[in-house]
Amino acid sequence: MKPGTPLLELRDATVVKNDVRVLDRLTMTIADGEHTAILGPNGSGKTALIHLLTHDHYPLAAGDSAPPPLRVFGEHRWNVTDLRSTLGIVTTDLHHQFVEGNSTGRIRGVDAVVSGFFATRGFLINLPVTAAMRDQAEATLARLDAAHLAARRLDEMSTGEARRVLIARALVTEPRALVLDEPTSGLDLVARGRFLETIRQIARGGTTVVLVTHHVEEIVPEIDRVVLLQRGCVAAEGRKREMLTAERLSALFGAPIALQQNDGYFYARSERAT
């Protein structure tokens, strides 16, 4: 990869589901090392964007002379296993697959992390698991203050504990970037605070963090770039202080929004129109 190659490039990316354009000529660039939040209301295209990155959705084919609609680290053709080793992705869907699956939830935390080397859903049967992989998995759990979860089954963990294990799974291959989709969904107040501190630690550790969310308060202080997503398009993008204003958020969510700031975090609440 050449120096300065963007982490993510979208150029007129269009995705159609059930005859609806869930992404409509979406154009966006995220630089390597640039912690970024992609913020938008429900229905803005956030889930479609995640599915595009995981290759669960594919953009409409561009013309012969048009640039590829999606590049990750400069490449538009990826082996899915190689992609997942370069770009760690943690979604709510992944959490459900691991924790609520008929058998996946019964695996130990360390085995769930090891499965990240193979991009499997936790099953390690007939896979060439090495002692070095297990050592790396345990070290990654320890890095996230989750060493105590190595021997516990996922279905015996709290939501916050299981989410921490899945982040370790995403990081075990030492990817250049980590994409988090609605990461605090289902967490209580205390678990949410601990989880956000984990995200801050990862961002400070040199891994590029891309946060996809509709919760302003999830945007940790280390994130300084915000992309506002609306109806499958970029409504605005720029520095956090320029994007997170009452005026912009009110327009984005279609309702009056009041905004407060404390210790590097922004907090939004809906206000009844007068």
Describe this structure in words.
By secondary structure, the chain is α/β, with parallel strands linked by helices. It has 2 domains: 1-73 and 208-274, Rossmann fold, CATH 3.40.50.300; 78-175, Rossmann fold (3-Layer(aba) Sandwich), CATH 3.40.50. Helices cover 31% and strands 25% of the residues. It has a 6-stranded mixed sheet, with helices on both faces. The protein has a 3-stranded antiparallel sheet with strand order 2-1-4, with helices on one face. The protein has a two-stranded antiparallel ribbon with strand order 10-11. β8 (225-230) and β9 form a beta hairpin. The radius of gyration is 19 Å and the shape is globular. The protein starts with 7 loop residues before the first strand and ends with a strand. The relative contact order is 0.16.
CATH topology assignment of the largest domain: Rossmann fold
Helical content stands at: 25-40%
CATH architecture of the largest domain: 3-Layer(aba) Sandwich
The gyration radius over C-alpha positions equals: 19 Å
Strand content of the residues, in percent?
15-25%
Biggest β-sheet strands, sense, barrel: 6 strands, mixed
Number of helical segments with 4 or more residues: 9
What is the CATH superfamily label of the largest domain?
P-loop containing nucleotide triphosphate hydrolases
